[in-house]
Structures are given as structure tokens and as C-alpha cells.
Amino acid sequence: MLYNPYPLLESALLESDPDAKCRAAAELFEKLAAAGGVGKPAAAALDFRFAGRPQKPILVAPADVQKRKMSTTEGYAAMLHAICHIEFNAINLALDAAYRFRNLPEAFTADWIRVAKEEAYHFSLMRGRLNAYGFDYGDFEAHNHLWDMAYKTAFDPLLRMALVPRVLEARGLDVTPAIRAKVAQRGDEATCAVLDIIYRDEVGHVQIGNHWYHYLCARRGLEPVALFRTLIARYDLFIFRGYVNIEARERAGFSRFELEMLEDFEQSLKAAPKTGSWQQALSR
Ligand SMILES: [Fe+2]
């Protein structure tokens, strides 16, 4: 029997209570696994501007998120909270991909429902670690950069796959080893174990994004490496700033060739004189 996941995807996406959202993500995965496939309705997805989220954390601009020293308990908890917030957004991003992009093979829908279930698990585990230090999700401010990028790429699954899993989620692969080292230094083995689960699963999530990015490029007759460079430049994004985890990115489906090309390209962008900027146009 086919399972139509769209009503539950919609209510899970709009759900503002984190526990209920996590339960819905797990239920979607179980129902789909028990069914013989995805039943696709004729109705189109609704274009929600915002996904469901609790009233707290208070959202501020990325630059306004207060920086705290990790040496204090509060600062350490703020770092755990930031990871919690990323995982919470990742649930919404995965639900949104499965809900919104309907004219794709059912493996796409199944992949993103599985990702949503895993992100819900990560969120619950990390929230548990935050609770262990006497704090909860919502106790610190946060920014909405991840969801904003989801909305900016909502009109095209190729753009979404290119810029969310391949840029933003892949960035998690770069930063997690350093965070884990700091957590280990503090002797917090329980959080290290959670970070290990997150890191392992995120390689798979970026891999899913890579797979569907290449699938959509092939279907449209587009050259994936050149297109990605164009998108990176056009959306003012970057890959090579700070440490880049080549080994994990290769496991997640980036080729060494593409990564080397990207590094060269970004260096050439940095070195190039900024001709044609609006400041220059005004000063002429
Ligand atoms: Fe995650």
C-alpha cells in the first residue's frame, strides 16, 4: 500500500512544539517504512514563509548573537544551545524538502524524511546535553540564517540541494572536529558521544544532497562543477574559509577535483579587483 506523507509532513513542518515535531518526524519515517511506497497527491505544496518553531529562542541577526567564553558554564551551554538550534532548523529543512519538492522520484521524499527523523534524534540528544547543564532550548538567542536560506531556495530543488546541504550542512563537517576536541578537553564524554552520532549522520545527509544535486543537474543537462561555482559567487557564499574537512567531504560525495577547482576559484575571486561595484560607480 502507498502512503501519502504530505498531510503529516505539513503538520510536522508547522508544528511549533519541538517534542511534537520530533515525534512527527519519527512517525513519518515509520509509516513510510511500513508502506510500499510514496503516494503522491495532485495538490501542490503551500509556500510557507516560516516553519513552526517555539516562541523562544529569540531570533536576532547573526552578527548580534552574543559571543560567550566557553570556559564558563553559561558559555559552554550557549555553545550546546547553538548546536541544538542548528539541529532544530535541520528538522524543518529536511521536512520542507520532502514536503515542497513533489515532482521528484519517491526516493527523494524518502531520503529527506529519513534525514528529518535523524535530525530530530540529534536535536533530542543535544537538548538532553543542554538540560544536563541546567539549561533548555530557548534559553539563549539564536539566528535564522538556515531557515532564511531554505526560503530563498524554495522555488527550485536544484538550488536547495546546491546551497543548503552542499554549502551550509557541509560546513558542519568542517567545524565539528574542532568543537569535539574542545568538548573532549572539558572531559564531557557524553556530549562527545552525541557529536560522534551527529558527525556520522551528517556525512550521509551531505551525501544525499550531493546525490540529488547531481541528479537534477544531469536531468537538466547542466555541468555540476561549473554551475556550483557560479552559484557560490552569485549568492556570496564560500567553502574555503577556515578549515575544510576534505576527508569527510570526499566521503560525502565531493570529488577531490571539484574541491581543488573550488579552492582555486575562490582564491581568484578574492584576488580579483572589485570592478563594477556600486561604490566605484558612484565615485566615477
Ligand atoms: Fe543533524
TrEMBL record:
One Pfam family recorded for the sequence: DUF455
Protein name in UniProt: Ferritin-like domain-containing protein
Highest taxon, organism lineage: Bacteria
Family annotation (InterPro entries): DUF455 (IPR007402), Ferritin-like_SF (IPR009078), UCP012318 (IPR011197)
